[in-house]
Amino acid sequence: MPDSKTNWTLFVPIYNLVIDSDMGGKLTIERVTFVSSDKIPKIRRLKEPVFTKTRVYACIKTKRSADDTLSREFHRIQEAVYLLASSQFHREPRRRFLFGSPDATSQADEYLIIENNGQGGTSNHHRTHPFEPYRLNKEWKFYLKRHFFFDLIKIMNQDIKVDSKWRHTIRQAAILAGQSQFTTKIWESFLYNMIAIESLLVDFEDRSTRTKDVMTNRFVAIFGWLTNERLEEWKEKFYRLCDLRNKFVHTGNIRGIIDKDVIDTDTILANLLRNICRLTEFFNSKRDIIELSKRLEARRILGMEPSDRPQGISYSSRTISELERKRLWWQ
């Protein structure tokens, strides 16, 4: 029986996003290409943009029958939106530029309050994100020079080769970073970050070991030089974060999660992604991180100098000002 499926291209409007001409008007992430609307007329059989209120489309090629659903294609586009959103992650300051479908770009705090036995009342319509669009241009590209985003995209597009399972893990961690950046809740940002950190550091085989110990040891294996290999200084931070995560997951208790916890998890996740995506010759799979952790732990126990940590590892952190704290969108 002949294949009834044919080749199609799906165009989805992406609101609140601009790709300037100095970026070539497009950006490809895996199978999805974000393309400026002024390039659409150049596409065969489409004379002019169908959508008039957006300057960017997400395009994806697919093989399908005319009556097939488009759920898989829309899902891939949404994931590409989150991957692009990860380019905002751990930047100065933590500020959201929402983009995507209309429901993702129109979030606002709306309410009406009236005095039951009087004449008082007021309504509010306050947007929870900046009005200006997220703009991709040469300045944006330069600003991301030391960010993980462009190395991440090379891995996703397989221009940089890593273990396939590891590529999937990195991809999911970056998607979670994008979701963390978009969410309107402090506890959601914290949870997305913690899930991503755990996915990069903890293996299924570690289920019989305390997660907080595994995460601490493996993070120190990579970044221990920051505190001269003193494990206790990292334990305090990771134990607090893991305890907050466990309270939330197991009891629904979100009390105690503060802005500093989100900034701490931002920093941990961003540095993991930065070094994992940049130093793929050392971190080609999760097993590489596990083996490094085991070697350095053995040397630490024996009182030996850690001599086999990969060269070129870097770490960046930032402090949050009181002014920024007051402006944080999840306050």
Walkthrough of the structure:
Helix content is 44%, strand content 14%. The protein is an alpha+beta fold and 331 residues long. The longest helix has 21 residues, at 231-251. It is globular, with a radius of gyration of 23 Å. The N and C termini lie far apart (60 Å). The mean pLDDT is 84.
Calculate the terminal CA-CA distance, rounded to whole Å: 60 Å
Strand segment count: 8
- SS-derived structural category: alpha+beta
**From N to C, what is the helix and strand string?**
EEEEEHHEEEHHHHHHHHH
The Cα radius of gyration reads 23 Å
Low-pLDDT stretches are none
Binned strand content? 5-15%
DSSP helix count? 11
Largest sheet: 4 strands, antiparallel
Mean model confidence by pLDDT:
84
- Bulk shape: globular
Strand order, biggest sheet? 1-5-4-3
Spell out the key features of this protein.
single chain, alpha+beta, two-stranded parallel ribbon, 11 helices
Précis, in short:
With 331 residues, this protein is of the alpha+beta class.
